[in-house]
Write a structure and sequence with these properties.
146 residues; mainly alpha; 7 helices; 0% strand
Length: 146
C-alpha cells in the first residue's frame, strides 16, 4: 500500500510539473517570441509535455491501470535528456555553448528515472485455459456452389 501511494505522489508531482508548462506555452503562443528567436520547436515540445501532464494527473487515481502511459512519460523524458546531452556534447566539440546547462540534463534525466522507478508492477497474466476442440479446428472455406 505504501508503494502504491508513493507511485501516486510521484506521478502526481510530475504531472503537475508538466502541466505547469502551460504558462510558457500560452505565453509563447500569445507573444510570438519563438518566431523572432527562430525557436519554433519550443511551443510544439511544450504542448506535448503539457498534455502528458494532464494525462499523468488523470492516472494518479489508478496508476496500475495506466502503466503504459507512465512508461511512455518515463521513456520520453529519458529520450529527451539523452537528446539534450548529445546536442550539448556536439555543441561543446564545436566550441559553442547551448542554453541548456548540464544541470538541466541531470534534472530531466532524474525525472525520467523517477517515473521509471515508480512504474507500477505488471498485473500477472491470467492463467491459460484449455480451448475446446471446436475452437482449435480451422474454418474450412465453403465449396463453390454450396
Amino acid at each position: 500500500m505504501k508503494r502504491q501511494r508513493a507511485v501516486q505522489v510521484v506521478v502526481g508531482l510530475v504531472g503537475l510539473l508538466y502541466l505547469s508548462w502551460m504558462y510558457p506555452l500560452f505565453d509563447s503562443l500569445l507573444r510570438p517570441n519563438w518566431l523572432q528567436n527562430h525557436q519554433d520547436a519550443f511551443p510544439m515540445f511544450v504542448s506535448v509535455n503539457t498534455v502528458l501532464g494532464v494525462f499523468l494527473l488523470l492516472a494518479v487515481k489508478q496508476p496500475a491501470r495506466h502503466r503504459s502511459l507512465i512508461a511512455f512519460g518515463a521513456w520520453s523524458t529519458l529520450a529527451h535528456a539523452t537528446t539534450m546531452a548529445v546536442m550539448t556534447a556536439e555543441a561543446w566539440s564545436h566550441g559553442l555553448h547551448r542554453k541548456d546547462s548540464p544541470q538541466d540534463i541531470v534534472i530531466v534525466g532524474a525525472i525520467g528515472l523517477l517515473l521509471l522507478a515508480a512504474l507500477p508492477a505488471r498485473d500477472p497474466a491470467p492463467a491459460r485455459t484449455e480451448r475446446s476442440h471446436s475452437a482449435r479446428t480451422s474454418v474450412q472455406p465453403n465449396p463453390a456452389g454450396a
